Amino acid sequence: MSRTPIIAANWKMNMGPKEAREFLASLKSELCGDCKAVDKVVVPPFITIPTVMEVLDGCDCLGVGAQDVSDRDSGAFTGEISTTMLNEIGCKYVVLGHSERRQYHGETSAYVNKKVKKALAAGIIPIYCIGETLEQRESGQLETILKAQIVEGLADLTPAQAATVVVAYEPVWAIGTGVTASSADAQSAHAFIRSVLAEGFGQEAADAIRIQYGGSVNPGNAVELMGQADIDGALVGGAALVAASFAAIIKASI
Ligand code: PGA
Question: Torsion angle of alpha carbons 155, 176, 15, 225, nearest 10°?
Fold first, then answer.
């Protein structure tokens, strides 16, 4: 099964509009024609999205995602952004259930499931994040945790809907720490995730779902990680704040 790799830059709470303009100018000079074989996405803070759209000026060479979305339609929900708004501005992706949202905002898989369904109903591709803490891994709960996050977070989806979702496996202990999972450990977690997806949605859908690895991905470790059979791209934080290193990770996935 050939899946188009997807490399996404999760800028988190970095990159205001001015910095984003500079980043995109450098990225343009770094990227080449052969990068077409990879889906490339930037995920800026909400306030930066209009600037990114303006710079891209309709070019579909780079997809744009949001870092979160509301599970509600509209109305009195201070601070929230709706799927309608993301559609209006042209966001094709939304990162959901990132471990930082789970940790600092108390988001559970069941709650994130509402957002996943909202995004899909609006035609926006969810990048659904899962991953275990070090304590959970060391106490032998890796598979239980990943399975629960998949079953709860992707509940009620049809196989056709599930096939469009991107799953990001991000071990919490690897995020922003400089410690990456070994390529063998990452591959075995990805293979397990795909088997759980197959149980829930059938083999065909599971084979179509792209599973990104995330957690301290950098130009130095990307080639080996991306070479694994079940790793279909990366969700990149720190190393995606510099255009040259984001471009190098994209090239590593070809
Ligand atoms: P990192 O972040 O690449 O800085 O570890 C990844 C993420 O949180 O998506």
Answer: -70
